[in-house]
Amino acid sequence: MAEFDEYESLPTSNSTTHMIAGSMAGILEHCVMYPIDSVKTRLQSLVSANRSLGSVLVTMIRDEGAMRPLRGIGATVAGAGPAHALYFAAYEKLKVGFTSTGSAHHNYLAQGAAASAATVLHDGIMTPAEVVKQRLQMYNSPFRSMTECAIKVYRSEGLSAFYRSYGTQLAMNVPFQCVHFIVYEAMQNATNPERTYNPMGHVVSGGVSGALAAALTTPLDVCKTLLNTQEAEVLQRAQKTQISGFFNAAKMVYRLGGVGGFFQGLQARVLFQVPSTAICWSVYEFFKYFLTKNGLSDGGDGDKVTYEKQDTRMSGGSGAGYPINSLNDISSNSAIVGGVTLGAGHVLMKEDLLPTGSAASSALSAARALGAV
């Protein structure tokens, strides 16, 4: 009997594991590439001279100190942990919930819908953190710390300042995450159809999906940066006290930078997203694998059940089986031919896997007594 890869048996209903893995992935994704993100924010400024990524980074370190590219990283950590935990847990749950039959890995419509819904939750946490982070990243920022920035912005502009770019953030991140997740899942289907733990495959799929999504949504990111930073010189040129709304931001970007203004920082954004999404997916998949292999994931109520053998299959009333990807795919099935029922509605084909553990042993023994196994 071939050894079953526990990594792919991770129950989709196990939100705790997805939240832990997602939180670690989000924090590492943003922290490792944070200096490039700081440069991208500077390059998207509508009042800065057109310079290269390298020259901005060198100037920042030379004139403002070696640690300047990391300024604001605390706000990112504070936001990225809970935001990504909620995001991945919601995505994993919803993509299966939106799939009526078959495998969620091949249902791109369900993946896109799940990514969109999860993005709404993610951005609700991350948008205020982005406001604080980007204000600290700007040249000549008047704020000395994350706490000082948050307090002064709240006192001078009110709570709405932290969500001024929320609509634009969603307008950017919904298509970004749809492209990102669909391309990632498609590449996994092509390069890793067995869905085993494959670090190199996760890195390549994550990097390609991130690059494509980043390039397509750069114009929206430029508008989001303007709404978050409210640069004093831009406001002075526009003779406004603040810029609100996506369309006003887009008009200001075009007025000051033309069509090219919408693609300021494109190179930095893609350069940031390629390793970021590669890191995010590889870390997420690793922790998902690690937590499962070490028995830290709980598949549901009652005794834990583990399984052996690859290519688990489910059969409907007609007796025709088809591959499944998690216990959730079969939890609602009530008709099985020659199968073994393991409680909680889980029905598995006897010839396709051998259940182990206290909760499964009774069912297996009964099935043997009946001659089914």
UniProtKB/TrEMBL annotation:
GO BP annotation list: iron import into the mitochondrion
Gene3D superfamilies (alphabetical): Mitochondrial carrier domain
Membrane association type: Multi-pass membrane protein
Keywords, ordered alphabetically: Ion transport, Iron, Iron transport, Membrane, Mitochondrion, Mitochondrion inner membrane, Transmembrane, Transmembrane helix, Transport
One Pfam family cited in the UniProt record for this chain: Mito_carr
InterPro entries named among the record's database cross-references: MCP_dom_sf (IPR023395), MCP_transmembrane (IPR018108)
Keyword match RNA-binding: no
Keyword Mitochondrion: yes
Family: Belongs to the mitochondrial carrier (TC 2.A.29) family.
Organism: Daphnia magna
GO CC term, one of those recorded: mitochondrial inner membrane
Chain positions of Solcar repeats: 13-97, 106-190, 197-290
GO molecular function, one term: ferrous iron transmembrane transporter activity
Protein name: Mitoferrin-1
Organism domain of life: Eukaryota
